Amino acid sequence: MRGRGGIGRRRRLKIFCLYRRAGSSPAVRTITLALALSAAACERRPDVGPVIVSANGAEPQLSIAPLAGDDMASRLLTDSVAQGLVRFDAAGQIVPGIAERWIVTDEGRTYIFRLRETSWADGRPMRAAEVVAVLRRRLQSRARNPLAPYLTAVDTVVEMTPEVIQIELTRPRPDLLKLFAQPDMAIVHPTRRIGSGPMQVVAKVGIVTRLRPIPDANRAADEREDPQAEDDVLLIAERASAGIARFSARKSDLFTGGSVGEWPLLAAAGVAAADIRLDPAAGLFGLGFVRREGFLATPENRAALALAIDRPALVRSFTAEWQAAEDLLPAALDSSSPPAKSSWQPVAAEDRRAMARARVDAWRTAGNDTPEVRVALPSNAGGTLLWARVAADLHAIGVRPLRVAWDAADADLRLVDAVAPYDSARWYLDQACRPCGEAATEAIEAARLAPGLAERARAMAAADRLLAEDVAFIPIARPLRWSLVAPRLRAWQGNERAWHPLNGVRRNPI
């Protein structure tokens, strides 16, 4: 015992010395400490005790806000303690939430939900009238609800009986359920700020919130399983760098919500490749045109920038598993045509840079100065790596790039990195049109207002074609979303929504 204790003291001293030698940089010291702790803790994580989850975000509150916050920790907390009518499971599929079943009629114009026997977290029964009131407020919160632009077809939300809710739409939306499964549509009591589970907050200390599954009242008492400590979740809201270091030091079981911005930190932290899991996320990753002036006033010149980007080299600088993309739409989705091609896409890869350079040379020959493009990117490690690739590509065709803050008002291009909340071409078109030409804008609006599914599909195909002709967006790839997952989390699954409910990371809820 004495000898083993001596080894422990020497190991702790070695870790301390490594930390002291790491220099004054907090980031360097954090990564160095993580590496030292990883070497010291070589045992495999056992499936014992609560699941420890780290997510990017500020310190969570004991009561949740009426709308989910923007950071991952807040959204996970909301999703855990306040389900919507429906919710996502571990595979990103729609499963019952407050509603135990539903029917969709009239080509997606009428949704009828039958509520299950549910209580608020304080034990009071939940009634259809309360759910209706919350949903109406959600739909009216257009300034604060990011899903509001895609819910404009909802006309009425009414209580049919104490257990049945009917939602009527002015236009068909058969894909509405995926929007209602988002944390932004969770049913949160407006004054008590509580939900109905599937989990509840049982303790909170600083940045750590302890969550525990709520027993399913709809199951017979003899079928309910006794609660286990392993079913609890400790949700830690912290910076991504701290979360990666925590996982590397074997002090957590899951870091979730990783993106391009944090990817370069994985190599510094020495995270094992087997622990890195990528989601096949659906969405957009590319550069949107914010200002269309000077050199960027014409589609031909905007196409020159699209030609300049070496997509395969850019994605490989992050990971070989990241796939490049050139189409705005990942598939036809609910459009009547396959994804439209821009004029620059058929150009062979070996000819693209020369063609782009010719456009810049023609601009300068006409008596104009060297074009200057201000690119707005996040101020993190991934943003810097992305900037190195984009800046080199633009320099190569004679454009002078300048990096500005992601929210800079004077940006010409801004990074768009977003996971699609549902599978409709309209979301992609709307995200890319920030701004776009008048014809494309009108086509997107026509798609929104189309009275039937066939008309909607044709309008979206037209909008996609017009956006491609307008070169309003430069696609680069699909969103890079990843998690760090310990082997004990057997139920974790990658999915298109890149969403991993906390009640389903260790075992699938029964």
Structure report:
The chain has 510 residues and is an alpha+beta fold. The chain folds into 3 domains: 47-82 and 197-281 and 481-510, D-Maltodextrin-Binding Protein, domain 2 (3-Layer(aba) Sandwich), CATH 3.40.190.10; 83-192, Dipeptide-binding Protein, Domain 1 (Dipeptide-binding Protein, domain 1), CATH 3.90.76.10; 283-479, Dipeptide-binding Protein, Domain 3 (Dipeptide-binding Protein, domain 3, Roll). 32% of the residues lie in helices and 20% in strands. It has helices spanning 2-21, 26-40, 72-81, 128-140, 176-180, 240-248, 264-269, 299-308, 311-316, 349-365, 381-396, 425-432, 438-449, 453-470, and strands at residues 51-56, 86-88, 94-96, 99-105, 110-115, 154-161, 164-169, 199-205, 208-213, 233-238, 254-258, 276-279, 283-289, 372-377, 400-405, 413-419, 473-477, 481-485. The strands form 4 sheets. It has a 7-stranded mixed beta sheet with strand order 8-9-10-1-11-18-12, with helices on both faces. Strands 15-14-16-13-17 form a 5-stranded mixed beta sheet, with helices on both faces. The protein has a 4-stranded antiparallel beta sheet with strand order 4-5-7-6, covered by helices on one side. A hairpin with a 4-residue loop joins strand 4 (99-105) and strand 5. Helix 13 packs antiparallel against helix 14. The radius of gyration is 25 Å and the shape is globular. The two termini are 45 Å apart. The model is unreliable at 1-44 (pLDDT under 50).
